[in-house]
Amino acid sequence: xxxxxxxxxxxxxxxxxxxxxxxxxxxxxxxxxxxxxxxxxxxxxxxxxxxxxxxxxxxxxxxxxxxxxxxxxxxxxxxxxxxxxxxxxxxxxxxxxx
Length: 98
Prior knowledge:
The chain has 98 residues and is mostly beta strands. It has strands at 5-14, 18-27, 30-33, 41-44, 47-59, 63-70, 89-96. Strands 1-2-5-6-7 form a five-stranded antiparallel sheet, with no helix packed on it.
């Protein structure tokens, strides 16, 4: 386990139609015992991630548009040995309510 791991979230509502948020995640370095591979202890570096999210309501309670950016600074990190982690990822779309 890392010596520390924490997440901070800033949220803002601008007017009645716009929502913005920024999430910051900090994970300290940690040691991983590779029992199924080399049988050695591997030191994993700490990492920091920043995610952004914004949405705007276009038609009250009916239609909104959003934009989400994960790993804003394209941090190269290892969360778990043997698994890929996602680089910068951008997602945008519309929410419809019928």
